[in-house]
Amino acid sequence: MSAPAADTAFDEGELRARFVGRVVVTVWQGAPRASTIAALRAKVVEHHQRFGDGVALVVVAHGGPPDDAARSAFKEMVAAVERSIAGVAVLVGIRGLRGKLVRGAVGAALRALRLPFEVKILESAAAIGGHVDRLLLGRGLDSPGAATIEGILRALDPTLST
Fold first, then answer.
1. Dmax (CA) of the chain
2. Running DSSP on this structure, what letter comes out for residue 116?
3. Euclidean distance between CA atoms 136 and 80, whole angstroms
4. What is the number of alpha carbons within 13 Å of residue 94 lying toward its C-beta?
5. How many CB atoms neighbour CB 51 within 10 A?
6. Among 117, 116, 89, 115, which Cα is nearest to 103's?
7. Integer distance in angstroms from the first to the last C-alpha of the chain?
8. For the chain, which ranges sit under pLDDT 50?
């Protein structure tokens, strides 16, 4: 069986996003703005309605932290789809001890939010692909496959290291 094609969800300014089956891959090139999140929300909500039994989110963020308006928009978007989120994988591709420390800090901040789904902080596109594939298959859900997820990540963000 061949992997499903990736559909463009968003591709402008600070955000590039693709849907592939029940996986949403997002690459933030700049600090998220509330207007971008609001535009993305409509597409994400529709996608989650199609896959109400489970969607995996992949996030790569190169920009700075969101401002208060963007944080509020994120909270609203998550609240609208949280029941269908099977898990989230965040790529922090910094190598070595510094990367381990940054991933630990990001993980601690996310745990403090007490989200109703698992969030895993990982170091590479390959690790993200494998994690998301196992997450979906472990829940009895179809997956586009680790290589497809990794390929979409690399296509959206060619700066990712191997």
1. 44
2. S
3. 21
4. 14
5. 18
6. 89
7. 26
8. 1
Output the pLDDT for position 2: 54
Q: What angle do CA 127, 157, 150 make, to 5 degrees?
A: 30
The strand order across the sheet containing 23-28 reads: 7-12, 15-20, 23-28, 55-61, 85-91, 119-122
Q: Give the SS3 label for residue 122.
A: strand
What does each C-alpha distance from 1 to 5, 22, 142, 144 come to in angstroms? 12, 16, 12, 10
Distance CA 26, CA 45 (A): 15
Residue 26 β-bridge partners: 17, 59
Q: How many CB atoms sit inside 10 A of residue 38's CB?
A: 14
Q: What would the pLDDT profile of 30-60 be if each residue is shown by its tens digit?
A: 888 999 999 999 999 999 999 999 999 998 9
CA distance 29 to 134: 27
| pLDDT score recorded for residue 19 | 95
**Kindly report the CA angle at 33 between 29 and 34, in degrees rounded to 5?**
145
How does DSSP classify residue 84? G
Residues 44 and 38: their CA atoms lie apart, in Å, by 10
